[in-house]
Amino acid sequence: MAQDSGTRTLISHAQLRRGRGKAIYWTLLTVVVAVFTLVFLGPLYWMVTGALKSGQEIAQTPPTLFPADPQPQNYVDAWNNLDLAKLLFNTFYYATGAVLFQLVLDTAAAYSLSKLRPVFGNAILGLMLATLMIPAMVLIVPQYVTVIDLPILHINLLDSPFAIWLPLVANAFNIFLLKRFFDSIPEDLMAAALVDGATPLRTLWSIILPMSRPILGVVSIFAVTAVWKDFLWPKLVMPSPETRTVSVGIYAFAGGTPMNVVVAASVIAAIPTVVIFLIFQRNIMSGLTTGSLKG
Questions:
Q1: Which SS3 state, helix, strand or coil, does residue 125 take?
Q2: Which terminus of the chain is more exposed, N or C, with fewer CB under 10 A?
Q3: Model confidence over 175-186: pLDDT tens digits?
Q4: Which residues are listed as membrane-spanning (predicted)?
Q5: DSSP summary character for residue 63
């Protein structure tokens, strides 16, 4: 380890300034960036260009890098034939409900564990985090049995948005993220609010939530993407064509639809989440890192 101007690095700045060390560093950096760029952007490029190809061209082997005869009409056909407007509206509706439920209930749980410190709070948090070790596929059957016959109320939730919203509320990872962020908020603020006569609910609303906008944005984005990309669970609990999400709807129409039109529909379905990420990427990084610094 070398030290220069108070910064410790694996390679000293003096070595990086030398001819050979500088060449090796920039070569490795260029190779790593190029490989990761290809891995992450390659599928997106294939999807966007594939949507512009004809049915024969997209199926040929080896594939072409550029469409020989670009056909933007594929996007129009995908929008009209697959009824993407309805599918996107359904998915947006489910995502909005998931965001609201998670912000209210997960925030309340995290605030209670972080600031109110109930009896056995650490044990409860440990049990919640232990559920993250359970594979999601293992929970499919008990969750489905619960949805078709809700305990106590004996209500069938199939084709109901609550079949998607309720399982998403019990999100141990989001509760843990929120708790870690709340832990970083100084206790002096809580003590000052208590001296002023503020109730725990008033403290949450007036102090905690305004300071927690970054992490609340992260949880919201996680909730939206979870609904948008999920396939198996919406396929099970939303069997009606009128209530399908965009991923299930594209799959249902894929059997009798040309591949290039299906790919065009996939591009359209991916645009909202990509736009959301590009707009809020700073909030994501800020929310994930702020909670790791306490004090």
A1: helix
A2: C
A3: 999 999 998 888
A4: 23-46, 92-111, 123-142, 162-182, 203-228, 248-280
A5: P
